[in-house]
UniProtKB/TrEMBL annotation:
The keyword Isomerase applies. GO terms for molecular function: isomerase activity. It comes from Microlunatus soli. This is Sugar phosphate isomerase/epimerase. Pfam families: AP_endonuc_2 (PF01261). It comes from the Bacteria. Keywords: Isomerase.
């Protein structure tokens, strides 16, 4: 990750990465030009969850030409199980250290038996990726996993039922907040399990649920929404998070992404925003 020129007193001194989904429409039209635009924002770290009709080798060459890199490769739940070696080969070609899944096939509402099946699959796939390919498997929460269970949720059950040596997590802070949970508390509860983070914010006034879905227009620039980003980032600093990525699913990324970057750079460790 690129370090800001002056980090004195900054809460978030590094430049975050970018999730390819943020610029999915642009990548479909012009992959090289979209990388140039992201690079012009100072962002060099990409999480690809789509190859946009290109090969992993073609994307790697474009990244290398621009001094950029792919740190995480997102794939489908079925693909990581049924085509583990092929997924791993693409991830290695891209230069990624992480393979990420963001949604599991399930019947709503999510149930304890489904969570147990998922945890077993994660342990199995995570072991193969780690042992055979030296890659780290991460699961990205999506909101539906936070069904109450015992003293916690089914997300807690998944975390506690998976092997920390082979299964890590990517915290999507919006999809933790949307079903009614505090992302900062999750980081403090499991400081060694989260390795990646999606930075995003939820429009004020929007009420969440366990669906794992909301209108894309409800993604707003960081600092404009409901999430307590300073507290989340303070918790993240004390956790095992290695890569932070902006993910903005809205149709307003041209305006919102620069504002999100400016907001992150403005945050001070004492909780104030720089003037």
């Amino acid at each position: 990750m690129t370090t800001a020129q002056s980090t004195d007193g900054q809460l978030f001194p590094q430049t975050p990465g970018m999730v390819s989904f943020t610029y999915r429409r642009e990548f479909e039209q012009d992959l090289a030009g979209t990388l140039d635009h992201i690079r012009s924002l100072g962002v060099t770290d990409i999480e690809f969850s789509n190859l946009f009709g290109h090969t992993a080798a073609e994307i790697r060459a474009l990244l290398d030409e621009r001094g950029m890199h792919c740190s995480s490769y997102g794939v489908g739940y079925a693909d990581v199980q049924d085509s583990t070696d092929e997924v791993a080969a693409a991830a290695k070609t891209l230069g990624a250290d992480f393979v990420r899944v963001a949604w599991v096939t399930h019947e709503a509402p999510f149930t304890e038996p489904q969570a147990e099946v998922v945890a077993e699959a994660f342990n199995r796939v995570g072991t193969r990726l780690r042992t055979d390919h030296d890659l780290i498997f991460c699961y990205h929460n999506h909101g539906y996993e936070f069904v109450p269970h015992n003293d916690g949720t089914l997300f807690d059950l998944i975390v506690q039922s998976t092997d920390p040596a082979v299964v890590s997590f990517e915290l999507d802070i919006l999809w933790a907040f949307f079903p009614g949970h505090d992302p900062a508390q999750l980081l403090r509860r499991y400081p060694d399990r989260f390795r990646l983070m999606h930075l995003k914010d939820l429009r004020r006034g929007v009420e969440g649920d366990l669906s794992g879905s909301t209108a894309k227009e409800n993604d707003v620039a960081l600092g404009d929404g409901q999430l307590d980003l300073p507290d989340i980032l303070r918790a993240a600093r004390a956790s095992s998070i290695e890569h932070y990525y902006i993910e903005d699913e809205s149709p307003s990324t041209a305006e919102q992404v620069p504002r999100s970057l400016a907001y992150l750079a403005s945050l001070r460790r004492d909780g104030r925003e720089a003037s």
